[in-house]
Design brief:
Order of helices and strands: EEEEEEEEEEEEEEEEEEH
Number of domains: 1
Structural class: mainly beta
Helix content: under 10%
Strand content: 35-45%
Shape: globular
Distance between the termini: 26 Å
Largest sheet: 9 strands, antiparallel
Number of helices: 1
CATH topology: Jelly Rolls
């Protein structure tokens, strides 16, 4: 991984690239050119800026999230209610991973999915009813970190899920705004799942985010602390997170 700041405008629509190269997925809500709409501000496709073509789509207007202006730090974000976007191109959980999400859950319930693999027993990254950032098995028990979230602060957080490849189980360290949970979480996973779901756990929109995503990155490795901190700093500066 390269830890230097990338200068200039290097993505369609003039987005400044994240400071660490090698990401397999990059979704940026400020990048107007990366969105396709079915009507108005309803998102039918949020395009991947990594160059890998891992675009997230939703054909049904019933389940399309909405790109809204000035949700975070005066910038656009994508609001998910019982909505979701899906991708079947690759399994990000098959290798070690570091997932960055600038997100806010506005109404936490039992499960709130940020990113899931869409099968009962598969991996879900998100939030639980006690306002904890959590790793869970879809449709089964939630294992939460000890990093409490705030659902009514009006501000998003930079959340990082840094985990091992799913091969029956995965071990994950969660960070919120640069602070790590006091221990890692190990989950037994019964299925790899078939589809990547953003903003929910199912294509039906169940266990929806009930909040918004501003920017989203996946690296196909566990980043070093130096590189993780570099990416967190880029996101914090851009989105005005704590």
């Amino acid at each position: 991984m390269i830890g230097n700041i990338v200068a200039g405008l290097n993505a369609p629509g003039g987005a400044v690239s994240p400071p660490v190269s090698g990401y397999s997925l990059w979704l940026d809500a400020t990048n107007a050119a990366s969105f396709t709409y079915s009507s108005g501000s309803l998102v039918s496709q949020w395009s991947d800026l990594s160059g890998n073509g891992y675009h997230f789509t939703q054909a049904s207007a019933t389940y399309q999230p909405e790109r809204q202006n000035s949700l975070q730090n005066g910038l656009p974000s994508v609001y998910f209610n019982v909505d979701n976007l899906a991708n079947t191109s690759w399994d990000w959980s098959a290798s070690a991973y570091t997932v960055f999400a600038v997100c806010q859950m506005t109404s936490p319930t039992f499960y709130n999915g940020v990113l899931a693999r869409n099968s009962t027993g598969a991996l879900q990254l998100g939030w639980d009813a006690a306002n904890y950032y959590a790793v869970s098995r879809i449709g089964q028990a939630t294992t939460a970190s000890n990093l409490t979230g705030t659902s009514t602060s009006g501000n998003a957080n930079v959340v990082v899920y840094k985990g091992s490849a799913v091969s029956g189980s995965t071990t994950v360290q969660i960070y919120k705004n640069g602070t790590a949970a006091s221990s890692t979480i190990t989950m037994t996973i019964s299925t790899a799942g078939t589809t990547n779901i953003l903003g929910a756990t199912r294509t039906s929109g169940s266990d929806g985010l009930l909040g918004y995503i501003s920017e989203f990155l996946i690296y196909p490795s566990q980043l070093s602390d130096a590189n993780r901190i570099s990416v967190e700093g880029y996101l914090k500066t851009k989105w005005g997170t704590p």
